[in-house]
Amino acid sequence: ARAAREWSGHETTHRRGTRNSRPRCSMGDADEFLAAVLSMDLDAQLGNPALQDVYKEECSVTFDTPDCAGGLYIDLKSFNAFNAEYAERNAERTGHQLYLRYRRTEIPKSDSDENPPKKKPTRMGMGVEGGFQTDAAPEYSEDHSIVVLPSRLELAYPAEALPEQVQSVVLGVIAKTAAEKTETVAAFVEDDFKVMSKFADNLVQLDNGIKISPNPDDWVCAESGMKENLWLNLSTGYIGSGRRQWDGSGGTGAALKHYEETGRKYPLCVKLGTITPEGADVYSYDPSEDDLVTLPKEQLSKYLAHWGIDVMTMTKTEKTMEELTLDLNSNFEFSLLTEEGQELENAFGPGLTGLVNLGNSCYMASVMQVLLSTQPFISTYFSVPLVEFYQQSHDPATDLAMQMAKLANGLLSGTYSKPAGGDEKRGQKGILPRRFKRLVGKGHAEFSTSRQQDAFEFFQHILSVVERDQRSRGTSASDPSRAFSFKMEERIQCSSSKKVKYNHSITNALSLEIPIERATNTTEVKAFEEDRKAKEAAGEKVTNVVLPNVPLSECLSRFASTEVVDDFYSSAIKGKTMGLKSNRFATFPDYLVLHMRKFVLAEGWVPRKLDVQVDVPDELDVSTLKGNGLQGDEEMLPEEEEAPLDSQPTPPAVADEAIVAQLVNMGFAQSRCEKATIMVNNGGVEQAMNWLLEHMEDPDIDEPLVNAASNTSTQNPASEEHIEMLGAMGFDRTAATKALAATGNNIERAADWLFSRAGELEEMDVDGTAAGNTASLNGDVGLPNRDGKYRLLGFVSHIGRDTGSGHYVCHIKKGGKWYLFNDEKVALSAKPPTKMGYLYFYEAV
Hints:
With about 850 residues, the chain is α+β, with helices and mostly antiparallel strands.
């Protein structure tokens, strides 16, 4: 056995949470160490790494890693990791005495490896060959030892004299992949969303005698005579142009029209001009695919040969769809949002710590960076000493408040915001929020995965999780998520009787449609499109991209406009008529979040991201959008719980799978897609999409549908166990029963249901019916109510084609300066692209 080594105290200090003046104690020899181990009940001190998750990459309480001074101490019973300070606290708290100390030292790179030349990206991806490259992972040397706490005896490992039981556990810990790494994905690739077409092996091809010339000069759209952006239908031999763009450019949509006119029987088209021996762009119009797809090379070759095209003789004459996307992203969107090409100065210090991408976790990183820059979240999770959260937690790894405080300290303290290797040009290493992501995503169908997600949906999810946790602790009065909540007022007027109805709901964001037809630079955009076509035809690079520019005021005007509601059931006339609906603020929040609806259905029900800029001001005044409630000259519609059942169409019991599949491909959750499809009576993708956009902020968007005839959920009844669990969170039996009945006895969804209706529950009687047509203001208790004047704090931007792929970054204003947060990279922003935001965060002034 090697000699026992001197205890080396952990040198990293944590704000208000450090045990100061820890002595460096000289230990005895190996015999003393072994005697201490042999005196223990090893069954009580050792776990089984084969049956338990092993955490060895990140301290459970701080973001210290094996790279930090002192390394990490892995509890050999629970397999949680701690830095030196919290390892001692854990030993005192749990009685666990045996720890594996794990230290890691980065191996310096050679000078030739420091600054490798950047290659032009050839693939729409990140961290993959040919894509936008990230920094290469460093190499390390590793060191292990066994530590006994609190005596601080330490023995170098390997050590032959260790009891076999200890040896086995230590070997298992070292050999096992860290639980933090099992959920990590190294990159995102836009290509990964291409699927093999279901028609790959059995495509119908007509024998109609058509043969296609191999000469591109002979290709022409059968409808318009266009000579570019041509698509060959692989079943019929028809050549048609691509879809029309929003401004009228891009084609006549002849290829799609042909698919429609031929009974939707022939879905596959190949883009002429992209055919080479290596393949080509293939698009499927089939509703269950409706996207670029792939075909085996031999099959594509066979299908093209049917029309007289020999792929071995073909050369590319037009850009593929991927190249067009890549050009836009590398030349404009990607470089603009990440500010590539600008000499950005790396930033360090408190509040300027980056979050390492765990693999498609940028949506979470961007939202959390902004949230933890708001005063309510700072006050709740950073102003309180970190050690207090640890002392109040039963299990720090699974305690939300502990992990929120850990993240807040990691991002805001400045402890981890230091130049990598002491070189400011290299930026910082950032912190890896593995435990946080695992915890906040637990039990969620989407956020528990490593797939890319919608940042807006995550924003709403994390606020719900925080609200639930605060409620369970009895600290709702100081719940930081309330700073984002506000009450909306919906006014509906019966066009026949002129009587009105007021509804109120509580939400945490304002979702805005972007009226692209109200762009202020339509002439410039058309000129750019013409120039782009000419340059592409000449093989020249497209530069100086011009996008439609829509003022935020136009988006707000669209929100405030009156909407016509057809088939509105009026209790005044006891029948259907036309209703006039408008929305206003009933209260104003401390922080107003604007969600820009950039993901829409284009012509042909194809999901597309709007290439558009929104001109947002630094100072925003929405006070004119304040609702006034019932006016003296208005008369309320008579109270009536529901329209007669025979006047309401009964939704179908099962959603159309094809419609649901297309909606899911746009990035929406499966349950929401099914609900939207049913609610529009399987009327089509466009109707379902519109329903989703209109109801995304509904508190009951994730609830199961209720059977119209029985007015009861078709799910399981409430269980006593779940009622008791909700009761422990502070909800009475009536509310808990109602929530469980509405959510199929799903405890987590029931809790979300209750928290999203905190205000409404105060307005309801025991039967759950509203006390009146106009909601009481009792639900406003605890909600902020500002004057509607705001200042821009930060914004989250998206790069890519849809919410289920791409990359997110955020910009935040701190101390009068704008900073870019791009995963672990933090830099002073040279020119913040405020027009490109997806989520805007405004703080009240």
